[in-house]
Amino acid sequence: MSNPASSKDAIRKDWDTYFMDIAYMVSTRSRCPRRHVGAVLVQGKKLLGTAYNGAPMGVHDCLEAGCMIAEEIEVKTVDGVEQVFRKQRCIRTIHAEQNLLLFTDRANREGSTVYVTDQPCWTCANMLANSGVVEVVYHRGYPKDSDKVYELMEQKGIVFRQIGPYSAPEQAEMTVTS
């Protein structure tokens, strides 16, 4: 005869999976046609806030008004050779991490962890670096800013890690276009 308690523990999710699942479910609120991103703020095992990417409240979003794409040019030195990289970003959208910081208190962020579906971009990483968080856990990579972001997090002493292996909840799956 099986022990009911042990069979329940066998299917119980670990904390990283639990909080990342919540971040993905939060991302389903996004109306961005390019990428749904969700973020959650956790202190210990206590959920303190959630946010997703989208247009400012009361403003037409990208599904209603179209994406507002801006192209950025960045010069990087790769193997001693300067190379030009072009990046496209939607500037209509407030990123999930930015919304999370806007709608949570600094006191709650001190010593906390942010779970975010996607690796933060450079701007969000800068904001997180000054926010009081001590750890950022993400799932999907964002190679456009990855090297700079890793370096910043290391300088700040913020634990920065990609969760894996991990599969997002079926209800939150989205094909990322850029």
Task: Offer a quick outline of the entry.
By secondary structure, the chain is α/β, with parallel strands linked by helices. 31% of the residues lie in helices and 28% in strands. It has a domain at 15-54 and 93-167: Cytidine Deaminase, domain 2.
Helix/strand structural class: alpha/beta
Architecture per CATH nomenclature, i.e. the level-2 architecture of the domain at 15-54 and 93-167: 3-Layer(aba) Sandwich
Q: Regarding CATH, which class of the domain at 15-54 and 93-167?
A: Alpha Beta
β-strand number: 7
Gross morphology is globular
Number of helices: 7
How helical, in percent, are the residues?
Answer: 25-40%
Could you tell me the strand content as a percent range?
Answer: 25-35%
CATH fold topology of the domain at 15-54 and 93-167: Cytidine Deaminase, domain 2
| pLDDT averaged over residues | 91
Strand order of the largest sheet: 2-1-5-6-7
Active site: 97 (proton donor)
GO biological process, one term: pyrimidine nucleotide metabolic process
Keywords: Hydrolase, Metal-binding, Zinc
Protein name: CMP/dCMP-type deaminase domain-containing protein
